[in-house]
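User: Please predict structures.

Assistant: First:
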Amino acid sequence: MSSENVILSCGCRAQSINGNGEPSCPVHSTIPGGVHPIPPPDLEGRMARCDCGKMAKSSLDLAFFQFRGVGSREGDETCKNCRYYKVAHRPEVTNKNNSVCLNFEPIISFELDKYYCGCYGWD
């Protein structure tokens, strides 16, 4: 199976093939439960930003594209109050970190998706 234009449950476009021949994400492959293909999101009207600030229309053709809209893992797992991930709101973590709020509320959707424009090189 090809990884081309396959979006995964982590929000990323598949960048590789795992040992079973399935589309994979080398960045998020260790997420509990793993990552799996999902139906492509509606990218109409969405924009993506590289870490350097360059913007582009959201597209599965962008390098290292990550969808962060409604229904995305990023939107569902990031707190709108403190911006920490949901896992950081567990009592054993909040007891050690004053920056995490005590009331996790998902951000639902980020305004922008992410991608890499090549600004730092490709090697």
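Second:
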Amino acid sequence: MSLRANGAFTITGQSVFEDKTEDSEWSPEWVEAKLEDVAAVAAAKATEVASVIRNIDDYLVFIERGHAALIARYPNAVVTIWVERLLAALDKNDRATAARIATARIEAGDVGSFMVDGQTFYQRAREYVGRDA
């Protein structure tokens, strides 16, 4: 199953820096100082993340925490991490878990963010894990 060819990859950013500026001078120096602040925060965040993610299980914990924080901030957000869970199961060659996730998401009517040739991500994933099983 070629996810890249199917356009499955989208990049959603981590919230690294939030700032609200109501009054500014918008000079090159001011903008440069703001960008330096953002770069410093991003570098610290990258170092922090790199220190806690050593394998796929660490990554799953990381995205679970990020998802929980997002839902805490925006309780009505319609965002799930089922695609990531399924891909992690595939990475670990846990076809049974991948199949369970795919079947449950199909039954829930979840397309997994895209369709190819009339099939959802989860339908294609279930087909993939069913091959050579």
